Protein: A/G-specific adenine glycosylase
Amino acid sequence: MLQQTPVARVAPVWHEWLARWPTPTDLAADAPGEAVRAWGRLGYPRRALRLHAAAVAMTEHQAGTVPSTETELLALPGVGTYTAAAVATFAFGERTTVVDTNVRRVLARVISGEEYAAPSPTRAELTVAAGLVPLDAVEARTWSVAVMELGALVCSARSPRCSECPVADLCAWQLAGRPSYQGPARKGQAWEGTDRQLRGALLAVLRASDVPVPRSSLEALSDNEIQRERCLDSLVADGLVEPLSRDRYQLPASREAS
DNA sequence: TAGCCGTGGTT
DNA sequence: TAACCAAGGCT
Structure:
Protein backbone atom coordinates (compact mmCIF):
# COMPACT_ATOMS: atom_id res chain seq x y z
CA MET A 1 0.00 0.00 0.00
CA LEU A 2 2.87 2.31 0.71
CA GLN A 3 4.34 1.94 -2.76
CA GLN A 4 4.20 5.47 -4.20
CA THR A 5 1.59 6.44 -1.64
CA PRO A 6 2.08 8.65 1.45
CA VAL A 7 1.73 7.03 4.89
CA ALA A 8 -1.04 9.39 5.96
CA ARG A 9 -3.33 8.22 3.17
CA VAL A 10 -2.53 4.54 3.64
CA ALA A 11 -3.03 4.28 7.40
CA PRO A 12 -6.86 4.27 7.59
CA VAL A 13 -7.25 1.80 4.72
CA TRP A 14 -4.57 -0.44 6.20
CA HIS A 15 -6.47 -0.60 9.49
CA GLU A 16 -9.68 -1.51 7.69
CA TRP A 17 -7.92 -4.27 5.80
CA LEU A 18 -6.37 -5.83 8.87
CA ALA A 19 -9.69 -5.76 10.70
CA ARG A 20 -11.40 -7.47 7.76
CA TRP A 21 -8.59 -9.81 6.70
CA PRO A 22 -6.28 -10.45 9.70
CA THR A 23 -4.21 -13.06 7.86
CA PRO A 24 -3.16 -13.83 4.27
CA THR A 25 -5.51 -16.82 4.35
CA ASP A 26 -8.47 -14.60 5.17
CA LEU A 27 -7.71 -12.35 2.23
CA ALA A 28 -7.10 -15.26 -0.12
CA ALA A 29 -10.51 -16.70 0.74
CA ASP A 30 -12.27 -13.59 -0.54
CA ALA A 31 -12.71 -12.56 -4.17
CA PRO A 32 -9.98 -10.39 -5.74
CA GLY A 33 -12.67 -7.86 -6.58
CA GLU A 34 -13.28 -7.33 -2.89
CA ALA A 35 -9.63 -6.40 -2.48
CA VAL A 36 -9.98 -3.92 -5.35
CA ARG A 37 -13.12 -2.48 -3.77
CA ALA A 38 -11.57 -2.18 -0.32
CA TRP A 39 -8.52 -0.54 -1.90
CA GLY A 40 -10.72 2.49 -2.34
CA ARG A 41 -8.95 5.51 -3.78
CA LEU A 42 -5.39 4.64 -2.84
CA GLY A 43 -4.47 4.57 -6.51
CA TYR A 44 -2.66 2.02 -8.69
CA PRO A 45 -5.39 -0.59 -8.08
CA ARG A 46 -3.31 -3.33 -9.65
CA ARG A 47 -1.51 -3.32 -6.31
CA ALA A 48 -4.73 -4.57 -4.69
CA LEU A 49 -4.85 -7.41 -7.16
CA ARG A 50 -1.22 -8.30 -6.56
CA LEU A 51 -1.66 -8.17 -2.81
CA HIS A 52 -4.56 -10.57 -3.13
CA ALA A 53 -2.48 -12.80 -5.39
CA ALA A 54 0.35 -12.70 -2.86
CA ALA A 55 -2.10 -13.80 -0.17
CA VAL A 56 -3.17 -16.69 -2.37
CA ALA A 57 0.45 -17.68 -2.94
CA MET A 58 1.26 -17.53 0.76
CA THR A 59 -1.82 -19.58 1.58
CA GLU A 60 -1.11 -22.24 -1.01
CA HIS A 61 2.64 -22.55 -0.62
CA GLN A 62 3.48 -21.66 2.97
CA ALA A 63 0.45 -22.41 5.10
CA GLY A 64 -0.58 -18.78 5.11
CA THR A 65 2.63 -17.44 6.60
CA VAL A 66 4.65 -14.50 5.29
CA PRO A 67 8.06 -15.56 3.94
CA SER A 68 10.91 -14.36 6.13
CA THR A 69 13.75 -13.98 3.65
CA GLU A 70 14.35 -11.34 1.02
CA THR A 71 14.68 -13.95 -1.72
CA GLU A 72 11.37 -15.63 -0.92
CA LEU A 73 9.61 -12.29 -0.54
CA LEU A 74 10.83 -11.23 -3.97
CA ALA A 75 8.97 -14.14 -5.50
CA LEU A 76 5.59 -12.79 -4.36
CA PRO A 77 3.49 -10.78 -6.81
CA GLY A 78 3.76 -7.04 -6.24
CA VAL A 79 6.85 -7.43 -4.08
CA GLY A 80 9.90 -5.90 -5.75
CA THR A 81 13.38 -4.92 -4.66
CA TYR A 82 12.35 -2.30 -2.17
CA THR A 83 9.45 -4.12 -0.51
CA ALA A 84 11.33 -7.39 -0.18
CA ALA A 85 14.27 -5.65 1.48
CA ALA A 86 12.05 -3.55 3.74
CA VAL A 87 10.01 -6.50 5.02
CA ALA A 88 13.05 -8.73 5.38
CA THR A 89 14.80 -6.04 7.40
CA PHE A 90 12.06 -4.41 9.45
CA ALA A 91 9.90 -7.47 10.10
CA PHE A 92 12.49 -10.24 10.22
CA GLY A 93 15.81 -8.58 11.01
CA GLU A 94 17.66 -9.71 7.90
CA ARG A 95 20.68 -7.59 7.02
CA THR A 96 19.90 -6.19 3.58
CA THR A 97 20.02 -2.92 1.71
CA VAL A 98 16.80 -0.95 1.70
CA VAL A 99 16.62 1.66 -1.04
CA ASP A 100 13.48 3.70 -1.49
CA THR A 101 12.90 7.16 -2.88
CA ASN A 102 13.95 8.73 0.42
CA VAL A 103 17.20 6.82 0.67
CA ARG A 104 18.03 7.64 -2.95
CA ARG A 105 17.56 11.35 -2.33
CA VAL A 106 19.52 11.40 0.94
CA LEU A 107 22.47 9.59 -0.62
CA ALA A 108 22.33 11.77 -3.72
CA ARG A 109 22.78 14.78 -1.48
CA VAL A 110 25.03 13.57 1.32
CA ILE A 111 27.31 11.38 -0.79
CA SER A 112 27.10 12.65 -4.37
CA GLY A 113 26.45 16.31 -3.64
CA GLU A 114 23.47 16.51 -5.98
CA GLU A 115 20.04 17.87 -5.25
CA TYR A 116 18.13 14.89 -6.64
CA ALA A 117 18.81 11.29 -7.52
CA ALA A 118 18.69 10.20 -11.16
CA PRO A 119 15.25 9.51 -12.67
CA SER A 120 15.74 5.77 -12.28
CA PRO A 121 18.07 3.87 -9.92
CA THR A 122 21.50 3.09 -11.31
CA ARG A 123 23.74 0.16 -10.50
CA ALA A 124 26.33 2.49 -8.99
CA GLU A 125 23.72 3.99 -6.74
CA LEU A 126 22.77 0.60 -5.30
CA THR A 127 26.42 -0.29 -4.80
CA VAL A 128 26.98 2.89 -2.82
CA ALA A 129 23.90 2.24 -0.71
CA ALA A 130 24.96 -1.35 0.02
CA GLY A 131 28.41 -0.20 1.09
CA LEU A 132 26.99 2.10 3.72
CA VAL A 133 24.89 -0.50 5.52
CA PRO A 134 26.42 -1.52 8.88
CA LEU A 135 27.68 -5.10 9.11
CA ASP A 136 25.69 -5.90 12.20
CA ALA A 137 22.10 -6.86 11.35
CA VAL A 138 20.52 -4.90 14.19
CA GLU A 139 22.51 -1.79 13.36
CA ALA A 140 21.70 -2.28 9.68
CA ARG A 141 17.99 -2.20 10.42
CA THR A 142 18.37 0.95 12.48
CA TRP A 143 20.43 2.49 9.68
CA SER A 144 17.78 1.82 7.09
CA VAL A 145 14.88 3.23 9.06
CA ALA A 146 17.01 6.21 10.06
CA VAL A 147 17.97 7.13 6.50
CA MET A 148 14.41 6.69 5.31
CA GLU A 149 13.07 8.89 8.08
CA LEU A 150 15.75 11.49 7.52
CA GLY A 151 14.67 11.68 3.91
CA ALA A 152 10.98 11.81 4.75
CA LEU A 153 11.13 14.36 7.55
CA VAL A 154 14.26 16.47 7.08
CA CYS A 155 15.94 15.86 3.74
CA SER A 156 12.66 16.27 1.86
CA ALA A 157 12.38 16.76 -1.88
CA ARG A 158 10.99 20.27 -2.11
CA SER A 159 12.25 22.30 0.81
CA PRO A 160 14.81 20.38 2.87
CA ARG A 161 15.27 21.48 6.46
CA CYS A 162 19.04 21.63 6.33
CA SER A 163 19.25 23.75 9.49
CA GLU A 164 17.74 20.85 11.41
CA CYS A 165 19.77 18.14 9.70
CA PRO A 166 22.01 16.02 11.95
CA VAL A 167 24.45 15.33 9.11
CA ALA A 168 24.53 18.77 7.49
CA ASP A 169 28.19 19.18 8.43
CA LEU A 170 29.21 16.20 6.33
CA CYS A 171 26.68 16.58 3.51
CA ALA A 172 28.39 16.95 0.13
CA TRP A 173 25.47 18.89 -1.29
CA GLN A 174 25.44 21.28 1.66
CA LEU A 175 29.23 21.74 1.50
CA ALA A 176 28.98 22.49 -2.23
CA GLY A 177 26.52 25.28 -1.55
CA ARG A 178 23.40 23.29 -2.42
CA PRO A 179 23.72 23.52 -6.21
CA SER A 180 20.52 22.99 -8.17
CA TYR A 181 19.85 19.76 -10.03
CA GLN A 182 21.81 19.37 -13.28
CA GLY A 183 20.97 15.81 -14.32
CA PRO A 184 18.55 14.52 -16.96
CA ALA A 185 15.04 15.93 -16.93
CA ARG A 186 12.65 14.26 -14.53
CA LYS A 187 9.46 12.82 -15.87
CA GLY A 188 6.48 14.86 -14.80
CA GLN A 189 3.26 12.94 -15.20
CA ALA A 190 0.48 14.20 -17.45
CA TRP A 191 -2.99 13.55 -16.16
CA GLU A 192 -5.85 15.35 -17.92
CA GLY A 193 -7.19 13.19 -20.72
CA THR A 194 -4.87 10.26 -20.08
CA ASP A 195 -5.80 6.60 -20.02
CA ARG A 196 -4.95 6.55 -16.35
CA GLN A 197 -7.58 9.14 -15.63
CA LEU A 198 -10.25 7.27 -17.57
CA ARG A 199 -9.28 3.89 -16.15
CA GLY A 200 -9.61 5.39 -12.70
CA ALA A 201 -13.05 6.79 -13.51
CA LEU A 202 -14.21 3.48 -14.97
CA LEU A 203 -13.03 1.55 -11.96
CA ALA A 204 -14.59 4.05 -9.55
CA VAL A 205 -18.01 3.34 -11.07
CA LEU A 206 -17.50 -0.40 -10.69
CA ARG A 207 -16.24 -0.06 -7.11
CA ALA A 208 -19.32 1.91 -6.15
CA SER A 209 -21.76 -0.68 -7.43
CA ASP A 210 -22.76 -3.89 -5.69
CA VAL A 211 -24.35 -5.24 -8.87
CA PRO A 212 -22.99 -5.66 -12.40
CA VAL A 213 -22.77 -2.38 -14.29
CA PRO A 214 -24.22 -2.09 -17.81
CA ARG A 215 -21.84 -0.96 -20.53
CA SER A 216 -23.93 2.14 -21.11
CA SER A 217 -23.05 3.43 -17.64
CA LEU A 218 -19.36 3.13 -18.46
CA GLU A 219 -19.71 4.69 -21.91
CA ALA A 220 -21.17 7.78 -20.28
CA LEU A 221 -17.75 8.56 -18.82
CA SER A 222 -16.13 9.57 -22.12
CA ASP A 223 -17.04 10.55 -25.66
CA ASN A 224 -13.78 9.20 -26.97
CA GLU A 225 -14.81 5.74 -28.11
CA ILE A 226 -11.32 4.64 -29.10
CA GLN A 227 -9.86 5.54 -25.74
CA ARG A 228 -12.87 4.17 -23.90
CA GLU A 229 -12.55 0.75 -25.48
CA ARG A 230 -8.80 0.72 -25.03
CA CYS A 231 -9.12 1.47 -21.33
CA LEU A 232 -11.90 -1.01 -20.73
CA ASP A 233 -9.97 -3.69 -22.59
CA SER A 234 -6.82 -2.98 -20.61
CA LEU A 235 -8.70 -3.15 -17.33
CA VAL A 236 -10.07 -6.54 -18.34
CA ALA A 237 -6.61 -7.66 -19.45
CA ASP A 238 -5.20 -6.56 -16.09
CA GLY A 239 -7.83 -8.63 -14.29
CA LEU A 240 -9.30 -5.55 -12.62
CA VAL A 241 -12.59 -5.85 -14.47
CA GLU A 242 -14.62 -8.90 -15.36
CA PRO A 243 -16.88 -8.82 -18.43
CA LEU A 244 -20.20 -10.61 -18.06
CA SER A 245 -22.86 -11.56 -20.56
CA ARG A 246 -25.34 -8.96 -21.87
CA ASP A 247 -22.71 -6.20 -21.90
CA ARG A 248 -22.33 -5.95 -18.17
CA TYR A 249 -19.17 -5.56 -16.09
CA GLN A 250 -18.09 -6.08 -12.50
CA LEU A 251 -15.05 -6.28 -10.26
CA PRO A 252 -13.38 -9.70 -10.55
CA ALA A 253 -15.19 -12.43 -8.65
CA SER A 254 -13.15 -15.30 -10.00
CA ARG A 255 -10.28 -16.73 -8.05
CA GLU A 256 -7.64 -16.55 -10.78
CA ALA A 257 -6.93 -12.90 -11.46
CA SER A 258 -3.71 -12.43 -13.36
C1' DT B 1 15.29 0.62 -19.51
C1' DA B 2 11.83 3.66 -20.43
C1' DG B 3 7.00 3.97 -20.20
C1' DC B 4 3.04 2.89 -17.98
C1' DC B 5 0.06 2.37 -14.01
C1' DG B 6 -3.98 6.50 -9.67
C1' DT B 7 -4.82 9.73 -6.39
C1' DG B 8 -4.66 13.67 -3.50
C1' DG B 9 -2.01 16.64 -0.38
C1' DT B 10 1.73 20.17 -0.57
C1' DT B 11 4.32 24.03 -2.33
C1' DT C 1 -2.55 27.49 -8.84
C1' DA C 2 -0.30 24.41 -11.57
C1' DA C 3 3.30 21.39 -10.65
C1' DC C 4 5.32 18.41 -7.97
C1' DC C 5 5.74 14.14 -5.66
C1' DA C 6 4.78 10.15 -2.65
C1' DA C 7 7.66 3.43 1.89
C1' DG C 8 7.57 1.13 -6.56
C1' DG C 9 6.61 -2.84 -9.67
C1' DC C 10 6.18 -4.79 -14.07
C1' DT C 11 6.94 -5.35 -18.89
Chain A has three domains: 7-90, 101-175, 195-250. DSSP finds 13 helices and three strands in chain A. Residues 1-7, 9-10, 44, 46-47, 50, 77-83, 86, 98, 100-103, 148, 152, 157-158, 186, 188-189 of chain A lie near DNA strand C (CB under 10 Å from a C1').
